[in-house]
Amino acid sequence: MQSHHTRSEHRQSLVSNRNYKIWGQTISQLAKTPRKLEKPRAEYSDLEIAGFVLQEHRDDVVRLWEAFTTAREDVARYLMDPKRESMVYLLGFHLANQARLSAVLDRAEFRHKLLSQLSAADAVHLLDLGCGSGALSLLTAQELWSYREQLDITWEMVDKSQSFLDMAALGIKLLKEDAKPVLRRQKLDEFLSREVAAGPKDGLVWYQLGYVWNEVSRHAKTTQLLLRLLGSGLQKGQRVITILEPASQDLAREAMELRDRLVEMGYKMLYPCPHSQGCPMLESKRDWCYSEAVWDRPPLVKKVDRILKIDRARIGVSAYVFVSPDLIEDGHVKLGKEGSIVVGRPVEKASRDPLLETKSYLLCAPEVSIDKVKASRFKVELLRGQIYRDMPDIERKPKAPEGAPRPLQKPRNPGAVKRAPRGSKKSRPD
Ligand SMILES: C[S@@+](CC[C@H](N)C(=O)[O-])C[C@H]1O[C@@H](n2cnc3c(N)ncnc32)[C@H](O)[C@@H]1O
Known about the structure:
The structure is a single chain. By secondary structure, the protein is of the alpha/beta class. It folds into two domains: about 15-330, Rossmann fold (3-Layer(aba) Sandwich), CATH 3.40.50; about 340-430, no CATH class. Helices cover about 40% and strands about 15% of the residues. The strands form two sheets. Strands 1, 2, 3, 4, 5, 6, 7 and 8 form an eight-stranded mixed sheet that branches. Helix 8 (about 160-175) links the parallel strand 2 and strand 3 (about 180-185). Helix 3 (about 60-70) crosses helix 5 (about 80-110). The N and C termini lie far apart (about 55 Å). S-adenosylmethionine binds near residues 160, 210, 211 and 216. The site of S-adenosylmethionine (SAM) has 18 residues, from helix 7 and helix 10.
């Protein structure tokens, strides 16, 4: 298994080859045989089959994307067929969500050695609420195992959709043959009321809340129960929470409010915030906090992007990592690098000339303030969610010394060169 003991803040291979293969296998095993195969199915690799399945579902992927980006409350209406809905989710969004979490965990590892320290635990229980295709828990397990392969990991997957649960269970089996994930086909309020009544679990529990808060935040009963579960977990100790939400202004602000409720409760922030006080960005309605990452998209993610006519080489996510304070006090998690965090990259138009635009960073400082610093155009750009530091200059090609022969340039219009009469001075177009 791959090891990342010197993880940096910007690893671009956010999704491993193994993970990509498991994704392809899951699609190949769960999807109907695509119609347009030219050879027997057995002669294709899983990823090739996944490519055909994606081609067949391209319109559905576009529809689900439109529902996610324009009217999230309509998601259920767009795809009424649960099997198809889960397959389309897996095809279009599973890997990108894993990449988002991977970037966040890289940064939590870089700053506080979160994964390497937690991987020393006896066992970790991943409790995935609204697990969908299991993207977040599959990724978290692989990341923890990359530090200690023997770590005992158990999964508890909760979702109202059986198709999603079957998908998540298959992914887990493909990752670890003898895993026995607990699958709970329940609405979250049903699950949560039983869980709260049963009292907090023993041991290290990692709650995953991936793109589910925006689906339940308007249900008072579900949100109250969720907060009670997280509150009783906090009292018990040994708790980690990851929250991922869309990076759009309104949903990101809802996630910021949830973040504030959890720190008020007593959870400690490990990512992205440099403190566990109230969020200063909530004071201005115009501000919202989210993280960005740049990644090497696997080929079929690039294909999804072509279908959607978007480029997800740079991804955004409103993401948070919390721990119960006992994990820090007892030395399981030692707080590491601190500094101001990039939370915005405003551009001020000083003039119509883009060269005169002033760029700056908005920084969230450990002293609980939002500060602005000027950013040089000639420096490598920092992403939202990264620690602010002096960056190297953008590499620029050295200028040729005076008098040196100019390198041959590719003609911009080769036809023009061909048509130029022989011996003409204009052998190269301007
Ligand atoms: C947008 S998906 C996110 C899946 C996954 N957590 C991820 O990050 O990729 C939301 C999931 O939550 C489930 N879900 C939404 N509301 C739910 C509820 N009230 N009870 C149980 N599951 C719910 C949906 O079935 C779906 O699988």
